Amino acid sequence: MAKQPAQLTRRTTAALLGSGLAMPALHAQTNILRFGLTPVFLDSDLALLRDLEAYLSGALGLPVQMVKRRTYQEVLALLLSRQIDAAWICGYPLVQHRNQIAALSVPLHRGRPLYQSYLIADAATSIGSLDDMRGHSHAFSDPDSNSGFLVTRWMLAERGTRPERWFSSSFFALGHRNVIRAVGTGLAASGSVDGYVWEVMAERETELTAQTRVVARSAWHGFPPICCLMEQRDAPLSQSLARALEGMKATPSGARILATLQLEGFIPADLALYEGIARMSDAVRRAG
Amino acid sequence: MITRPTGWSLALRVPLMVGGLVVVVAFVFSLGVLQRLEQDQRLHLAQLAATYLDGMATAVQPALLQRDIWEAFAALDRARMHYEGPRAVSTAVLLADGRVLAAADPRAWPSGVTLPADVAERAARAAAGEPILDPQRARATLARDLFEGGIPIGRIVAELDIAPLLKARAKMRQTLILASAALTLLFAGAGFLLVRVFLRPVETLRRHVLASAATGGLMPPLPPEAFAHVGNEFNALFQALNRTASAVAEREDIAARLAEEERFAQLGRLASSMAHEVNNALGGMMTAVDTIATHGSDPAIRAASLGFLQRGLADIANVVRANLASYKGEAGAGPLRATDLDDLRHFVRHEMERRGIRLEWSNTLPAELAVDRTLVRQIVLNLLLNATAVSSAGGTVSMHAGEKEGLIRIEIADAGPGLPADAAAMLEAPQATPPRDGGLGLWTASRLAARLGGALQPMPAAQGTIIALLVPSPRPYADVG
Description:
With 288 residues, chain A is α/β, with parallel strands linked by helices.
């Protein structure tokens, strides 16, 4: 395949994606955009992936390949190793690699490029605070997720403790939706989850979020941005991608995608949005 | 009144037996099908369980190795979503120490705790063999131990809802029982009716034979309506039966006519004998009358002639009385008296004298016996005439009659050449057809003896033939009733 990259059609790429196969040799091509995704946003929505791929492909005038991985770490590795051109990642990896990664665009949710982390509890329990969660099991989303790990990790660090000491057991569900499910089914007594995801699911899968209860909301943090390598920030492809995202709300297909994601659009990213995350990251690092 | 089954007619018993046999066969068949169904379901469930556990093992093994609660849960959840077999009520992945890593329903089996003791016990047994079925709870417990490099790392436990299987089995059982019962009734009923139809000729035959036996007469031919709706075999049988009945009736008719003819022949011979006796006496009496007419003045001659006349008239009276005694009535007209037998001497005397044969007569019978006198006289007279016919001149024919211990025994001996073999055979089978070449008198006597309930029996004899008439002797008529 590496010898005939030009023959890789969008349909073929979509089919390969649909089948879950990765294309490790595609980084050698230049006339295709590889876009990395993580469970930072709604999981398992293949139709949304297909629509987003179609929109970007049309807007950029070249094939776009969505590359989905289970963990932030995997997507980040792909980005840092140039196997993908851009990725929608969390603010936490961004601040951890702020010298290598640049934020291109950031979504607007409810009019602002901000979101919160939620601490949720099993609705069948009486847990009402982080203190109540002590001695119970807890579900995190991803070790590189701001809302799904860092915020809670930081809150515990502020208490001078760590998750493994605070909770009886904890695990990573690798996806905010999975955290909500784990807590809703009783697999974990509580969980750390992206507030944006919980709110969207509260409208779409009410029966699932109804089994959970929001116990605490964090301060507002910068919404997960679309990033590229720092050195690629000013490259034509990266700039085209940023324009395509920011122009999304102006096209019917883009507007449909935004409506599905319950976002209002994209704006150019400002690193200042992520200062709060950076502070927490530093604090946690210092706490050890 | 309820009769015992052994008293039921064949036309009822055989169809009932056929019906019963069908019921038994259907029952055994249904039992076999149900057992096979249960075996198949067990096998099916075991195969489903193996397939289910194969898929589960592949899915949860990595999570178990990493002790990844979410991945184990997600694998169980995916299995629950995608498995198309019996519904999994509870599934869990256990660590090697028996604690739950993750369960599909964490509220029932939370992570980090051990399973309830009863579930753990069933799981241990299931892991060692086949699924453990609990029909009461409609649950099947499956389990499989997982290993990595030969080291046990945990166990998959699942409890399946087998209510649909049990329901299907119950439904199948119900359907089978209903179908079997319906088919059994159908086949048993059809078999009953068919066999009844097939055996209807037997029932017809049975009723016909019993009816004719009840009348005591000959069996009449089957009526034409008996042949309606009868198969070829029974048609041929009925026709053969009717031919036999006709032949028997014809034979009886012939026998009766022959007996009548023989009686007339006897009558002719007796008439001739009587005429001869009377004529003999009349000759002497005419001479005596002439003597009286000529020498009637001589008292001595007159007295001698009158005495002669008197004896002659007595002889004639004896002959006439004997004939009257023999033929004034039909069979069964009265009891047998000793004198009835003695009268027979007058019938044969002339023939014996003509042939120069001597008669020995010994009659010790009681005064009166409750035996048909006419039949006895006919038998004895036949035997005496036969004995006279086969004896040569100068020979002796003897008659000895007596009664002892309820048996009348009358022996007739002759000085002939002995009893021919065919005549001896005829005595043994008195109901056989009459002989074609003579011997009709002996055949008639033999049949008459049978009618008396007795028999003619050839006796060993140094010379000639001795035939004994043996007749049971009941009480005298005077004592009856």
